[in-house]
Design a protein that fits this description.
alpha+beta, 16% helix, seven-stranded mixed sheet, binds zinc ion
């Protein structure tokens, strides 16, 4: 879990109407071992936090580079994720109760870590590709077809075409 604490006590007291958070922070990988989402370089926060009644609204973008696998050929690729953010922070409703659909304000602080984690997970493409025309892996031998032909192609010719070829030879 990433923890990026921001003091919002001045906002809550009404001393200031909004505060900006424009910083780069190191970010630890998301998820479990095996299916980890790793970050390349720091994550860039560009957020404005405003007070709306008793709540705080965080708006802006969070940008980071992640290492993921191409969904076709499984090679590693680095993807720039730019996540748009518009989330509410709220004080806990009661003891042990967490506010619904919102992040918590705890002791005059908010934690931007979970906010960024959620934003990145939502911004991830379902089927990332190393390139638009990735040829993927050969279903027969498993070779990465971007690196060259594997020789299985002959066997994949449409049987009808094979018969036509024979007919033409006669
Ligand atoms: Zn690929
Ligand atoms: Zn093959």
């Amino acid at each position: 879990m990433n923890r990026i604490a921001l003091d919002v006590s001045d906002l809550l007291k009404g001393i200031s109407a909004e505060t900006e958070f424009r910083e780069k922070r190191e970010f630890s990988p998301l998820g479990e071992r095996g299916e980890k989402l790793e970050f390349k370089g720091p994550v860039e926060f560009n957020l404005v936090i405003r007070r709306v009644n008793s709540e705080l609204m965080a708006e802006g973008t969070i940008v980071g580079k992640v290492m993921i696998e191409c969904s076709r050929c499984l090679s590693k690729l680095i993807l720039l994720l730019k996540a748009g953010v518009r989330e509410v922070f709220r004080k806990p409703v009661g003891p042990g109760e967490s506010p619904e659909e919102a992040f918590e304000i705890i002791g005059g602080e908010i934690d931007l870590g979970p906010l960024a984690e959620q934003a990145f997970l939502l911004a991830l493409p379902l089927k990332p590709l190393c390139r638009e025309d990735c040829k993927g892996l050969c279903p027969r031998c498993g070779k990465n077809l971007n690196e060259g032909d594997c020789g299985c192609r002959e066997e994949r010719i449409d049987p009808r075409l094979a018969i036509l070829k024979k007919l033409k030879k006669k």
